[in-house]
Design goal:
Layout (H helix, E strand, L loop, with lengths): L5 E5 L19 E5 L3 H7 L2 E3 L5 E3 L12 H9 L7
Antiparallel strand pairs: 1-2, 3-4
Length: 85
């Protein structure tokens, strides 16, 4: 199994009925995505796929203590340890 290098990123949902943002449009939850896709998404506006399957463009970085998607955390914790690629 290939090791997946990840980093916590915000979920951004462009649907107006989204429950994933607060009134100030800050993400309520952050997701784990492939680390090598972060810069590309931030610069080019391409979408990333989180471990849980959510798809979104990178627009914000999490602050320490930010809430993490429970499904992403569960998947990440089940992955074998490995180094950054």
């Amino acid at each position: 199994m290939e090791h997946v290098s990840t980093m916590t990123l915000p979920e951004v949902d462009t649907r107006p009925e989204s429950t994933d943002t607060t009134d100030d449009d800050s993400p309520k939850m952050f997701h784990y995505v492939r680390k090598n896709k972060i810069a590309e998404s931030a610069v080019m506006g391409t979408h990333v796929v989180a471990l849980c399957g959510e798809v979104f463009p990178v627009t914000r970085s999490p602050k320490p203590g930010s809430p993490v998607c429970p499904e992403c955390k569960r998947i990440f914790d089940s992955l074998p340890p490995g180094g950054d690629e």
